Amino acid sequence: MPIEVRVPVLPESVAEGTLLNWHKKPGDAVSRDENLVDIETDKVVLEVPAPQDGVLAEILKNEGDTVAGEDVIAMLDTDAKAPAKGKGDDGKEDKKEAKGETSQAPDLSPAVRKLVAEHDLDPSKITGSGKGGRILKEDVLKYLEEQESAPSGKAKPEPEPEPEAKAEAPSRPTTEPAVPLGERAEQRVPMTRLRARIAERLVEAQHTAAMLTTFNEVNMQPVMELRKRYKDKFEKDNEGVRLGFMSFFIKAAIAGLQRYPEVNASIDGTDIVYHGYYDVGVAVSGPRGLVVPILRDCDQMSFADIEGGITEFGKKAQAGQLTMDDLTGGTFTISNGGVFGSLVSTPILNPPQSAILGMHKIQERPVVENGEIVVRPMMYLALTYDHRIIDGREAVRFLVTIKEALEDPARLLLQV
Description:
By secondary structure, the protein is of the alpha+beta class. It is built from ten helices and 19 strands. The protein has helices spanning 95-98, 110-118, 137-149, 193-208, 221-237, 246-259, 303-319, 324-327, 392-407, 410-414, and strands at residues 2-6, 17-22, 29-30, 35-40, 45-49, 54-59, 66-67, 72-77, 211-219, 266-268, 271-273, 280-282, 284-286, 289-291, 294-295, 332-336, 355-359, 363-369, 372-386.
């Protein structure tokens, strides 16, 4: 019996999505809850599972098409059976089966299959970075580069991007297009829906908020010494959860937010909304760009809870498994550009939040303590805030609160 495959109901904040890539083609057998297609929204990538066992009879929406919630995108025949595989019309064994590639073929997108075939590659030797270890186009290109750079490797021409590869393409080109020597190369790629949404929100923040940034610096030596002293026992007592710096910063930020509630507030029309909870967004990097999952009720979380939550978000971001709930809400954000080597920067607000804290690279610098020049591991801190709701005095004092808490971590325990 034919049944419809529909797009899941999308949250109110998400109007539509884009079909990324089909994992099945017409005639393929599918199992109930098996992922049929990925849909990219401006927040996350959603999976559309098969509603029943059967055979994918017809695909009604192609890769790259825009779809809305509950749109019919395919038809599934629950009574049909998939045709037998392994023999062609001439009765001979399929060439791919002869090479032992049968198990890999269904997991490769058309663009990846084309690249693998053109370069006569063994997919089992390529490490996939997609969901469930699925091989993406950039994984194949990276593998080719590694083969070319090896001493015994033979350079092979890089194929031009194919139209069907747009679902696999990163937000920016990872390799330069092949052009004749002496010509200046250009490559035009469409923005992903996530990148377009990021651009929209950043411009919105610039146009709607009175953004101002205040800076300070913090001596990280007390935190580093504390972390060094207890990190092994912390990891042992908390089932492998490692003690990082972010939990100290979140705890210090909570102390500041409790002292200066306007930093944890937001503007709604002509009203100021003071939030009685502390949901902190932590920027993490994934294959599709920078995303900001939310740690809920951070004031009630232990250091281990915070570190474990951040680690889990990082894994989910890399695997593309963050959900709408993971990315929705938040009253304050922390961004750590230091992991990429940033020494100082001015972070941009994440509307409707009124403030964002920027962490930076820890670098040894000479400072004066008690009239003497000493070398300390220093970090610049940046607080960008909405001047419509937060005065400069409160912003500076908030940042000083974070500085004092980090330079004397006992304050976090005693709440002073």
